[in-house]
Every structure is written in C-alpha cells, then in structure tokens.
Amino acid sequence: MNHSLIDQIGNTPLVKSMVLNTNPNVTLYFKMEGDNPGGSVKDRAALNMIKTALDAGTIDHNSKLIEATSGNTGIALAMIAGIYNLDIELVMPESATKERVLTMRAYGAKVTLHPDGIEGARDYADDKVNNEGYFSFNQFANDNNWKAHYKTTGPEIWRDTQGKVTHFVSSMGTTGTIMGTSTFLKEQDKNVQIVGVQPTDGSSIPGIRKWPTAYLPAIFDASKVDRVMEVSEEESIAMARRLAKEEGILSGMSSGGATTAALKLADELESGIIVSIICDRGDRYLSSGLFE
Questions:
Q1: DSSP state, 69?
Q2: How far apart are CA 12 and CA 277, in angstroms?
Q3: What single-letter DSSP state applies at residue 93?
Q4: Is this structure's pTM higher than 0.70?
Q5: Which of 170, 164, 167 is nearest to 267 (CA)?
Q6: Which of 20, 123, 153, 182 has a Cα at 20 to 30 A from 144?
Q7: What is the pLDDT of residues 73-117, one digit of tens each?
Q8: Extents of the domains making up the chain
C-alpha cells in the first residue's frame, strides 16, 4: 500500500445526487474532486505536469518556475513543487480570494497578484519565460494537463459507473479536465455525450471561462465536446448554495455552474447516468461572499 501524499491524488468518490436531481429515470453522480489532498481537480494535472518535466530532465531543483493561474492549479502546483523541493512563482488576478493566496504561500510558493486578470497574469508569466530564463508549465498548452485526466479521471468514471455513464458534464477553464476525460470515455463508448459548461456573456465565474480567441487554450479541441451549455453567475451562486445546504457538498461557484447544467440536462433526458465534476472545495471561497 502506498502512503505518500502524492499517492492520494485521484480515485475520488462518485456521490449520488439525493435531492437536487428529481428525474427518477436519471442518475446524477457528482465526482468529488475536492477530496484530492490539494482540494481540487487540479492536483491531477499539476502532478502530471511536474513529474513528467522532472522525469524528462526539462526542469530540476535549480529551475525558476512560474505559472499563471486563477487559483486551484496554483495551489496544486505549490503543494507538489514543495514536495519535490522546487521553487515556484504563481501569478494570479488581484481578485483572487485571500484563502487561495495564503494557501499557496503556506506551501512555500511566491505569489504575485496582477491587476489585469488572468490574461494579464498569463502575459506577465510569458514575459518572464521569454526574457528572464523562467520555465512555465503553461497549463493552457501543456498536453500533460489533459493527459492527466486521460490516465486517471476518465478511467475512474468508467470503472465506477461499470461502463454505464451516458453523459459527462464539466466546467471549461483550461479545458484539461474535459479534453482528457472526453478522449478516454469516447474510446470506450463513442456514444457517451460530453457537455462543456461556459459562462453567459457578462458573467464572472471563477474557474469557468469563455476565452477571447487570442487566449483560447491550445489544448482545446472543439470536436471532443458534443454540446456547450451556458450558465449565469446568478445560477452558479444559487446552485453552489443549494449544493451545500441540500446535498451537503461545499464547493465553489464553478461546481455550482456545472451542477446547474447537469440538472437541466437531467430534466431533458428520458433516462441516463450523468457524471458531473465538483471541481473543488468551498472553504477557499468563504471570504468571497459566495455563501453570505
């Protein structure tokens, strides 16, 4: 039996919706990614990106690492970089919650807050890579992001539903989760429907993005998503609160958004087994007003 912290990443539980899903012919499962040691789905990609780069000799203990992140990837990278004794600078939007910043610093990372959102953070990191000799994992263009989910998330869902999953619902940020999981599930059964979740125009939902063309993640392949559903900021907040109060699942706003889409989908179907990603824990949003 493996007892290191690294070995605890993945194999997160599927939890059945007992209250919110009201269609008796549809089963809705929540994939509880907040159960990862770093508290989010991003532990998977962070581990795969760091370990692959170390194994290939692309980085070592003298490397100056930098990454732009809206939050969860940064926490995961900070945790795993600390375990491997690597120095990393994480660049986040100034709007990031205090819990996120303090968590990254607790793990030993340097945190830089940028006034121009995630796009500004990405530009700042790119500049340091191009001009100051830094190395960035560039989660938006790194195949080891989506391959983490091809190797773990997809197989876990297939195994835990006994190959009966009919629909997979995921918020889209870097799109690593949906790309990797889709690739695996479609190889098992091409009829599995992959549903991506985006914010409506004008909605700000941490962890879900509708990217400007110039910033669209290079790993994104639209052919791997069968349907895109849009959710509003208001719906996502209300659903995050309902998840906590009615299902006992404390999660962030992006999980509220994914659940909103999953429930709309459940209402449309005559029958099916839906798996929807709960991408993180809600305790890192307590200072944000999400649950006030």
A1: -
A2: 11
A3: E
A4: yes
A5: 167
A6: 123
A7: 999 999 999 999 999 999 999 988 899 999 999 999 999 999 998
A8: 5-35+152-285, 42-136
Q: Can you give the length of the chain in residues?
A: 292
Sheet holding 88-93, edge to edge: 110-114, 88-93, 65-68, 135-136
* 82 annotated as belonging to a binding site for a ligand: no
* Annotated binding-site residue? 175: yes
254 as an active site residue: the answer is: yes
Q: Do domains 5-35+152-285 and 42-136 have the same CATH topology?
A: yes
From CA 125, how far away is CA 179, in angstroms rounded?
24
Q: What token pair was written down for 109?
A: 């990372």
Could you read off the pLDDT of 106-127 as tens digits, one per residue?
A: 999 999 999 998 889 999 999 9
Taking domain 42-136, whether its CATH number is 3.40.710.10 is answered by: no
Contact 181, 149 (CB under 8 A): yes
Is residue 166 annotated as involved in ligand binding?
no
Question: Active site includes 42?
Answer: yes
Element (DSSP H or E) covering residue 105 = helix 98-106
The catalytic position among 70, 182, 254, 255 is 254
Q: What would the pLDDT profile of 245-275 be if each residue is shown by its tens digit?
A: 999 999 999 999 999 999 999 999 999 999 9
**Catalytic residue from among 31, 42, 147, 186:** 42
- As a whole number of angstroms, the distance between CA 148 and CA 227 comes to 22
CA–CA separation, 284 and 64 (whole Å): 27
> Residue 233 corresponds to which tokens in the numbers above?
């900021």
Q: What is the pLDDT of residues 141-165, one digit of tens each?
A: 999 999 999 999 999 999 999 999 9
Residue 254 marked ligand-binding: yes
184 close to 158: Cβ distance less than 8 angstroms: yes
**Identity of the residue numbered 1:** M
Q: Provide the pairing of β-strand 272-278 with 135-136.
A: unpaired
Report which of 156, 142, 175, 187 is spatially closest to residue 33, judged by C-alpha positions.
156
Token pair of 186 as six digits: 């479609």
- Cβ neighbors of 204 (< 8 A, separation 6 or more) are 233
> What is the identity of the amino acid at 282?
G
- What CATH code is assigned to 5-35+152-285? 3.40.50.1100
